[in-house]
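[Discussion] Sanity-checking designs against the backbone

I'm trying to build intuition for which residues belong where. Below is a structure token string of 706 positions. I'd appreciate it if someone posts a full sequence so I can compare it with mine line by line.
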């Protein structure tokens, strides 16, 4: 999930940063206008023009400066209402404009959009710094915070006050003038580096395409993979050929099924070399600069390293605690990899082809072992996993757990024709929000899957319902043909929908505390726990229908999936955990001058990384960490949250099963509806009655619990 939060701007921007405005043109800019239409207003995607972005952003920031000036310059004594609550009502124009901007930069990033991005990102960084370093504004926040215990506020208001105060302090509100200036300069420089990193990666994903021209090159590929590759080639003007794109959703099935070892190696090397080709799009130099700047900023802010700064307001609290959890799991994961490789090598040896298992062989031979050991062909499973049916399965499960109903809405503007919209209703038929779904890969869309909130839920200043979106990169099939996805992709679909449900369930007063605005190592908990409703018989029997026969997945096949649930966990956990460990180690290195390629190689060797598989995200393509601060020193969060999620799901299995109404209500009341109004650790205790137990995670993976 990618989420960026920009607070209201400050009137303290230096004259050199002042944004020139053409008042007449700005007033007419459609991107700045309040959203109109049904459901409390909807984004006017049909009015978006790339040439309007910069003017709209400049106008929005100028409007926020006026709003902030009014708060910071208020001569009345600071109160919760005239300072903290006043902040909650600022920046609404910016929120609207940036919704458009981030959709285009993430999913429709043409060369024109990328030029706008290069110009705008430093402005946004300066904008945020100017707020957080506004001395007059912070004095008012600090004054309210200091007397907060006597202010007669609600618990949610106390939490809101703490969140604002903490955010300002962590960003350097107490620094001296020169220190503030340097932090602001670092943030602007980082904004430019992040943009270049993501654009370089997008270029490698777009430009490196393997075109296959003969049936011989398709050996082993299932029909649906062939059809998707043919469609991708035709979309790129190469009708009659097959395109293997340089994205995970295209790479993964090719490496799993292609019998052409030479082509598997080529696809593998191309994919894992993204951002690391020694050319103009190489990201290693950018990473070196990013790490140095982050280390310098952390020192200025009073922290030992960037990792210590990033984790200071998380559940883990310190990098040491995060490392302790990761290293608790790492030995068991790598030991399982060695077992998996031994099984694959034994099978390969029976073929007498002289194959020694290499990274481009892992998925291919793992699939053969799975078929032999568990009588489970995941391509057979895929035949039951139609994207449209699984989407309906997600809706049904959400209805059982949270009382939601979903009705498709036609006629509203969308950013791309592939996007569809559903209205979400509650148990009493009341409007809850809108869900936008953008499922398919296309040029200019970043890889992966994520959730975004176009509009946050709030009840302050009037009831405002949320608008959320899920975004994927499935390869679109031929016209009229169902889109079949893998079991792993189906889990990801449910995962990202869990983020959407977190937003849709939100029932808080203030937008700053709404929905998914929780600590980084807690935000993945609702999404990861939602994955567990995919394999339930109730979902599989109703929605895992074969694309040809329409019959539900046989119980025997579902049982084989369950029996094989711990299969290839060595690969999956080690692939992820190696990325999380390198992320943390890079950011614990302080101001060291790091060669990213050498650092990755040396640290993986020290960890005992198995040679037969790579990190899930090699450093030069690690967008979570180097396209923004979001998951920097925070990729461990998926493990931290999964420990919580697995422990939480056991609460259902210990009770009446996955759809137990009492446990579902407790999950809603304690977690899904409360946003960031309560400390996450307390939220979980309220749900489970205790802190999470890591043994649930180890049991799920089939690892030793001792």
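Best answer:
Here's mine. Compare freely.
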């Amino acid at each position: 999930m990618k989420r960026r939060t920009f607070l209201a701007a400050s009137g303290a921007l230096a004259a050199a940063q002042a944004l020139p405005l053409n008042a007449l043109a700005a007033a007419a800019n459609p991107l700045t206008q309040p959203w109109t239409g049904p459901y409390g207003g909807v984004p006017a995607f049909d009015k978006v023009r790339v040439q309007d972005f910069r003017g709209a952003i400049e106008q929005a920031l100028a409007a926020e400066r006026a709003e902030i000036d009014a708060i910071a310059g208020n001569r009345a004594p600071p109160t919760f209402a005239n300072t903290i609550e006043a902040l909650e009502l600022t920046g609404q124009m910016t929120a609207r404009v940036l919704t458009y901007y981030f959709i285009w930069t993430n999913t429709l990033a043409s060369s024109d959009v990328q030029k706008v991005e290069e110009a705008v990102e430093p402005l946004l960084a300066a904008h945020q710094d100017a707020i957080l370093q506004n001395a007059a504004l912070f004095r008012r926040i600090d004054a309210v915070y200091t007397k907060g215990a006597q202010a007669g506020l609600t618990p949610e208001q106390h939490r809101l006050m703490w969140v604002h105060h903490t955010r300002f302090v962590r960003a350097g509100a107490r620094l001296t003038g020169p220190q503030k200036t340097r932090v602001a300069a670092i943030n602007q420089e980082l904004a430019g580096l992040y943009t270049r990193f993501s654009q370089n990666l997008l270029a490698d994903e777009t430009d490196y395409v393997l075109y296959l021209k003969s049936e011989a090159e398709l050996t082993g590929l299932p029909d649906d993979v062939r059809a998707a590759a043919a469609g991708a080639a035709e979309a790129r003007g190469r009708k009659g050929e097959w395109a293997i794109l340089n994205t995970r959703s295209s790479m993964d099935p090719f490496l799993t099924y292609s019998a052409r070892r030479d082509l598997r190696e080529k696809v593998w090397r191309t994919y894992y070399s993204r951002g690391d080709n020694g050319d103009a799009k190489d990201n290693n130099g950018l990473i070196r600069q990013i790490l140095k700047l982050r280390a310098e900023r952390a020192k200025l802010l009073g922290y030992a390293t960037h990792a210590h700064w990033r984790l200071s307001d998380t559940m883990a609290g310190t990098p040491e605690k995060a490392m302790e959890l990761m290293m608790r799991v790492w030995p068991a994961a790598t030991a399982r990899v060695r077992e998996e490789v031994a099984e694959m090598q034994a099978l390969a040896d029976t073929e007498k082809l002289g194959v020694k298992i290499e990274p481009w062989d892992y998925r291919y031979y793992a699939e053969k072992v799975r078929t032999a050991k568990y009588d489970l062909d995941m391509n057979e499973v895929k035949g039951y996993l139609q994207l449209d049916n699984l989407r309906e399965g997600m809706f049904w499960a959400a209805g059982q757990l949270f009382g939601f109903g979903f009705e498709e809405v036609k006629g509203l503007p969308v950013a791309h024709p592939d996007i569809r919209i559903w209205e979400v209703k509650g148990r009493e038929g009341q409007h809850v929000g809108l869900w936008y779904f953008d499922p398919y890969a296309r040029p200019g869309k970043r890889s992966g899957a994520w959730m975004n909130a176009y509009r946050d839920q709030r009840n302050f200043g009037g009831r405002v319902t949320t608008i959320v979106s899920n975004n994927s990169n499935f390869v679109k099939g031929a016209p009229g043909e169902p889109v079949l996805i893998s079991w792993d992709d189906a889990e990801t679909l449910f995962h990202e929908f869990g983020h959407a449900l977190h937003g849709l369930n939100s029932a808080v007063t203030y937008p700053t505390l709404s929905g998914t605005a929780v600590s980084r190592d807690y935000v993945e908990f609702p999404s990861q726990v939602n994955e567990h409703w995919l394999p339930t018989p109730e979902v599989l029997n109703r929605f895992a229908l074969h694309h040809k026969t329409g019959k539900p997945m046989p119980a025997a096949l579902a049982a084989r999936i369950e029996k094989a649930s711990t299969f290839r966990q060595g690969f999956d956990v080690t692939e992820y955990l190696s990325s999380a460990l390198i992320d943390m180690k890079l950011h614990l290195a302080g101001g060291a001058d790091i060669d990213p390629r050498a650092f990755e190689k040396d640290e993986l060797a020290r960890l005992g990384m198995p040679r037969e598989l790579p990190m899930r995200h090699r450093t030069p393509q690690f967008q979570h960490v180097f396209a923004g601060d979001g998951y920097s020193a925070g990729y461990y969060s998926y493990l931290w949250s999964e420990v919580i999620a697995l422990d939480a799901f056991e609460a259902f299995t210990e009770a009446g099963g996955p759809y137990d109404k009492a446990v579902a209500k407790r999950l809603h009341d304690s977690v899904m509806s409360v946003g960031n109004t309560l400390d996450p650790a307390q939220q979980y205790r309220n749900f489970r009655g205790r802190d999470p137990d890591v043994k649930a995670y180890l049991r799920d993976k089939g690892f030793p619990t001792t």
